[in-house]
Amino acid sequence: MKINDDIYIKQGDCLELMKEIEDKSIDMILCDLPLEEIINLYCDEKYTLRAIAKKFNTNHHKIKNILLKNNIKIDNKNRKKRTMRARLEENEEAIMGKRNDLICEIKKRMGTSTELTELFTIEWEVI
């Protein structure tokens, strides 16, 4: 919607709309956090409020308020479970990173081609 020659208001997915905007042509962008995505992430039960807040570069109190304003019940019973799952996923990423670093180091030391063989699998279960 064109307000005047200098002011336009656009509504939609900001990531899609920003593709249409020329570089260095904007004075201000006003937008909200993507409500539907926040609700979906929370209801998926894999993410803590802090993890969702980190994803959207905000704090967990704002995420909690958004959920409460939209009648999404904050389930404290599953809070511990969500936190544990998030920690396990972080540890798993760290372990995989170290594993890949070790493989690269072994390849360098051997100076020959190597083949990756899975020796064991670690499975996590949150109770």
Q: Which term fits the overall shape?
A: flat
Q: What is the helical fraction, as a range of percent?
A: 40-55%
How many strand segments?
A: 0
- Biggest sheet character: none
How far from one another are the termini? Answer: 52 Å
Low-confidence stretches: none
Order of helices and strands: HHHHH
Using the CA coordinates, give the radius of gyration.
Answer: 22 Å
Explain this structure.
- This protein is an all-alpha fold and 127 residues long.
- It has five helices and no strands.
- The chain has a domain at 34-111.
- It has helices at 14-17, 35-43, 49-55, 60-69, 79-110.
- It is flat.
- It starts with 13 loop residues before the first helix and ends in a 17-residue tail after the last helix.
- The model has no long low-confidence stretch (mean pLDDT 78).
In a nutshell, what does this entry contain?
With 127 residues, the protein is mainly α. It has a domain of 78 residues. It has five helices and no strands.
Features:
127 residues; mainly alpha; 49% helix; flat
